[in-house]
Amino acid sequence: MTGPGNTTETRTDPYAASDPYAATSRETTEGTVYTVTGGDWDEMVDQTAGDERIVINMGPQHPSTHGVLRLVLELSGETVTDARLVIGYLHTGIEKNCEYRTWTQGVTFVTRMDYLAPLFNEAAFCLSTERLLGIDVPDRAATIRVLLMEINRIGSHLVALATGGMELGALTGMTNGFREREEVLHLLEFLTGLRMNHAFIRPGGVVQDLPTGHEERIRAFVKVMRERMPGFHKLLTGNRIWRQRLQGVGYLPLDGCLALGVTGPILRSAGLAWDLRQVDPYLGYEHYDFEVPTDTAADSFARYVLRVEEMNQSLRIIEQALERLEPGPVMVEDAKIAWPARLSIGADGMGNSLEHVRKIMGQSMESLIHHFKLVTEGFKVPPGQAYVPIESPRGELGAHLVSDGGTRPLRVHVRDPSFVNLQAAPAMSEGGMVSDVIAALASLDPVMGGCDR
Amino acid sequence: MSGEDEKPRTTPETPGTGAGGASGPTGASNVSSAGAVAFGPQEIRRPDVSGAVAGRAREGMFGVTDSGDTSGFSGLRLPAYSPPPAERPYGGWFDEVADETTAALADDGGADFATCVQQVTVDRGEMTWYVDREHLVRLARTLRDDPALRFEFCSGVSGVDYGDGVPQQLHVVVHLLSMTYRRRLRLEVALDVADAHCPSLVEVYPTADWHERETWDMFGIVFDGHPSLTRILMPDDWNGHPQRKSYPLGGIPVEYHDAEIPPPDQRRAYT
Fold first, then answer.
1. More exposed terminus of chain B, fewer Cβ within 10 Å: N or C?
2. pLDDT exceeds 60 at position B118
3. How far is B160 from chain A (nearest CA, A)?
4. Among B124, B172, B175, which would you mutate to test the A interface (most chain A Cβ atoms within 10 Å of its Cβ)?
């Protein structure tokens, strides 16, 4: 440390004694000329060269943090020495809201949790409800669910690639990913009526049968996706920049995954072929022939490759589901659970079919009462609790539902994989560069709507 | 069983207004008055059943509490649901896990299985162990480490509030998964509202970190031994724990004759 006394002697400034960093000046014929020196720069460099740490906030409104996620990074130079995640910016109280809705209305809420995989939220919630009710859905409903979920999985993985590409600067990956996702959304809109937040899967089955012409549309979709899927490999997989940004980045080995509860593509990238569709099949997944791709690199690049491969496998499942789609009911027969109305598309959108309205309004008072009670009051669910996990695009999505015997859930808890996987972000990114934090986060593919619920 | 279930029903009235008496007119007054006393100094009543009461008692046919029951079934009383203890054999791998845990705990030299696990319930193909909180961490470590059990993965920790008037209304629910054997097990710890403390599982399952923070945030359950038990979803300066059943909910004011849509828990409901 140099004392201020060393510099004051050259100063002509009368205030120099009180300000060690004041510029020196000289009177000339042109006026006063100040000599501005480095000021305290040398001292500052000395100070920061030691163990001075810089804490920066990234987010919650940062385009690279994958949503409203806030990262508190402690930096030494450009090396991240400590990373802490702050979540909760998208907390919407969906779990609490569900406690004041019927079980059927709960679907409308949970579908908005993980908004990139709405059909998975619905399926987990409905499977758990059905376990509480002790019912099984008809085969056709199960197959439709599988079909929709796999289409949704492709859409979700495409967003993972697209936003991940955007965050790393691969903007063509972003535009291509979202272009392909638009195909998914168009198809889902055709099949369910809505692009997102479908509320199509309901306790007891699905809300209505697939529209006519669904098979052609789905086959056309599969064909288009088959043509475009190699594009990702052409654009990104062999891309040197892409590889250098991702390979060896965001490393999380298997023991770390298990300790931190990480599931999904991140777990599979560490070498464990853990996919609930195969190890704990639901909705008849045991009848489908598909691979669970794994890798052992446990880095961001492996996760990217796995996601692309999982989309290819999803296309296989979609084709098999189409083959398995036999005519039949799409809702349980039990009139005490099944939605009373058959829905149809009218001039003003989807609603109760005209035949049903004619019946309840003109012919059968009992049908009207039944319809009214089931829609307003809902059905009673026997008391108890159930936890049903399914394999969402991000990992284990579990719905823990508790009933006390009423027409509303006593407790709805969704174990969302985004929430759990995000815990692994510090382990993945500490010791790396700031830019690697982005790559690691992108490979986690968190969806804050699901994380904060 | 039904006689035991009736007892918790009267618990909240004792320190409350006293107007309800032994034969309270409706369930609504019980529930609302209980909300005020839940956090105050009150006698902690342990349930007489070994396990937990998981639900509230019901009156009448439709569960309506505000305007009386016109169905003629207003005298109907349904006791609160209590998950029944399972009898041996539990079926499937459930017995094997129970036996192995019993043996592992015995080898350990500490409290035995019957002390650690107050009740075993098998329901809908899922096994639930109601665990004494004193032994939760040791039990979890045994479940994780024993080669015959290997519950190496914790799916999550969450809470359930069964509502005021239910003895030990707060439950901590832990879902464990054995990837080796492909088994799932649920541990449940019932807690008193006045003593909502549960030992933290973070040292056994690091993934429980955020789950326990969320459970603290939402239910006000204190996880002793947690490295940094702070709020996670709600803002840091928030008051109260939103997922408690007694947490006040807001109504919606309507700009018409000073009307207000009542809060969801006070609306007419058939549950």
1. N
2. yes
3. 6
4. B124
Question: Where does a domain end: A13, A34, A52?
Answer: A52
The nearest alpha carbon in chain B to A92 belongs to B233
ipTM: 0.81
* Tokens standing for residue A302: 């492996």
| H, E, C per residue of B5-22 | HHHHHHHHHCCCCCCCCC
> What DSSP string runs through A11-78?
---TTTTT-TTPPEEEEETTEEEEE---TTHHHHHHHHHSS--EEEEE-SS-GGGSSS-EEEEEEETT
Q: pTM for this one?
A: 0.83
Tokens (6 digits) for B263: 């809060």
Residues of B in contact with A428 (CB under 8 A): none
Domain-located, residue B56: yes
Domain residues for the domain of A412 are: 83-337+379-452
A18 band by pLDDT with thresholds 50, 70 and 90: low
- B52 located within any domain: yes
Chain A residue with minimum CA distance to B121: A384
User: Is residue A361 less than 8 Å (CB to CB) from chain B?
Assistant: no
What DSSP element (H or E) covers A399?
Answer: strand A395-403
Tell me the residue range of the domain where B24 lies. Answer: 2-78
Give percent of chain A with pLDDT exceeding 90: 43
Number of domains in chain B: 1
Residue type, B94: F
The answer to whether residue A8 scores a pLDDT higher than 60 is no
Helices (H), chain B: 2-10, 27-37, 94-108, 113-116, 136-145, 208-219
**Tally of domains in chain A:** 2
- pLDDT at A402 (0 to 100): 93
* A411: nearest CB among B83, B160, B211: B160
Question: For all residues of chain A together, what is the average pLDDT?
Answer: 86
